[in-house]
Design goal:
With 493 residues, the protein is α+β, with helices and mostly antiparallel strands. It has twelve helices and 29 strands.
Length: 493
């Protein structure tokens, strides 16, 4: 900095004036930018105003249920004819306590979502409850009626009747919330009543194996037992999540809490209020992740979308001409950035509606329209394919030994009469196919999305791919109870 101002001082007057103005302006811009950045990163001075506004909209949930009392000690096992058998039997019959039932109480949180008195909470808060009581911020206790619940997202809607004005909350858009954003959580931890905690969004899109639509927001705000069903607010006072679970070896808060995003919760809540249940969309496909190798095989610039491994017969996808090998890259106008997002998109779609679907097929985009079916209890909106580990001809570039389907091969690998493709009879443990978990008994049905019936077909396809300069070849495998696509490197790595 000293050298800069010294250079200005030695310049001619007109140059010095210009330079002074230039550096002064540059310094001012830098200060403004620094000030803005510092202000954006600064923590709120206080949450008190927001807390006063929001606390009356959050409620405590109290449930009671009948629990059968435990029986007394059991009669010990004695050898038949033992002299003590009658003695012990008489003793235990005279001293056996009567079976009694008791009423157990559990506590949780919730929040008001309508002027009609609808209250949202977690399903696990009210599950098996015989009586549900909603306790308002002023300690008013109101009996609640269960309107509907959805175990798959762990959400439930209650309703209370009251002459007093009940102020509902407003939902925000969790999809625009970012990691690092400030949030506050309000709930009823350990039955203490309205408690406010603050923190940030620590992560998005968490899958904690709680259900088929896991897409949790993670936060470091203190969330404990009793906070379940309570709201997570952004700094605009909008609900962007429903606090649901914690990770805690000790049972208390360790700074890892999870909330159902409002983008997931809102359509579920809307349907529970309207129908008392959730009607989910169904597409009728089995999908798998698009890896970098698969993307290269399909000619995609990057690994996006959901790869269709198979299509349910007579399902919505088949009727819409969606095929195995298609990569679904857009659904209902929304980009499918990764495979795991498609099931949620489909489930949220209104049953019976016709939606546009864009797939990647034969190295180009194809636009289709699909009429969404209704998901039955024993079905999944979109089934995710499991990642299972996927005379004879050797294909050394893949590390496979292959055979056409003969009676001998059919018997050896217990293949049905309708089995198609080429059978893998042996796998080189050091070859590229072994890396992808291909096993003896698997059948290669397609190579580069063309059907094969003979080992020579596969050898030819691999040779064509090598000459074209491709690093991998796409196989459609059937075996171990499913179909899946695998991109196998050509040649040993």
């Amino acid at each position: 900095m000293k050298k800069t101002f010294r250079a200005i001082a030695l310049a001619r007057p007109e140059q010095r004036d210009f330079s002074l103005w230039f550096w002064a302006g540059l310094l001012a811009l830098a200060l403004v930018a620094w000030s803005g950045a510092a202000q954006a990163k600064a923590a709120p001075e206080t949450f008190s105003g927001l807390a006063k506004k929001l606390l009356p909209k959050v409620v405590n949930i109290s449930t009671t249920q009948k629990v059968e009392g435990r029986a007394g000690p059991e009669l010990p096992q004695l050898p038949p004819g033992s002299p003590f058998e009658e003695f012990f039997k008489d003793f235990f019959e005279r001293n056996q306590p009567q079976q009694r039932s008791r009423r157990a109480t559990s506590l949780g949180s919730g929040f008001i979502v309508s002027d009609e008195g609808h209250v949202v909470t977690n399903n696990h808060v009210i599950q098996d409850a015989e009586e549900i009581t909603v306790i308002l911020h002023d300690d008013t206790r109101l009996p609640a009626k269960l309107i509907g619940r959805d175990p798959k997202t762990d959400l439930a809607v209650l309703k209370v009747e009251s002459n007093m004005k009940i102020s509902p909350i407003e939902f925000g858009n969790s999809d625009v919330s970012e990691v690092g954003d400030w949030i506050i959580a309000i709930g009823n931890p350990f039955g203490l009543g309205g408690t406010v905690t603050a923190g940030i969004i620590s992560a998005r899109g968490r899958d904690i194996n709680a259900g088929p639509y896991d897409d949790f927001l993670q936060t470091d705000a203190s969330i404990n037992r009793g906070n379940s069903g309570g709201p997570m607010f952004n700094l605009d006072g909008e609900v962007i999540g429903v606090n649901t679970a914690i990770f805690s070896p000790s049972g208390g808060s360790v700074g890892i809490g999870f909330a159902i995003p409002s983008a997931v919760a809102k359509p579920v809540i809307r349907q529970l209020i309207k129908f008392g249940e959730v009607k989910r969309g169904w597409l009728g496909v089995r999908i798998q992740t698009v890896t970098d190798e698969l993307a290269e095989s399909f000619g995609l610039k990057k690994a996006i979308g959901a790869l269709v491994a198979s299509v349910v017969e007579k399902g919505p996808a088949e009727k819409a001409k969606i095929k195995a090998g298609d990569v679904i890259i857009s659904f209902n106008g929304r980009e499918v950035s990764e495979m795991r997002r498609l099931p949620r998109m489909v489930a949220e779609t209104e049953v019976g509606s016709a939606v546009p679907v864009e797939v990647w097929r034969d190295r180009k985009k194809v636009k289709l329209s699909v009429e969404i079916g209704e998901l039955e209890d024993d079905e999944k909106p979109v089934e995710v394919a499991r990642r299972t580990p996927g005379g004879a001809t050797k294909v050394d570039d893949l590390g496979l030994e292959l055979s056409a389907i003969t009676d001998k091969v059919r018997e050896k690998f217990s293949l049905g009469e309708d089995a198609k493709g080429v059978v893998v009879t042996a796998v080189d443990s050091a070859g590229p196919a072994a890396e992808k978990g291909i096993r003896p008994g698997d059948r290669i049905v397609e190579v580069s999305q063309e059907a094969v019936v003979d080992p020579a077909d596969i050898a030819r396809k691999v040779d064509e791919a090598k000459k074209a300069g491709r690093k991998s070849v796409l196989l459609l495998l059937e075996g171990q109870g499913q179909m899946r696509f695998v991109a196998v490197k050509i040649g040993k790595s």
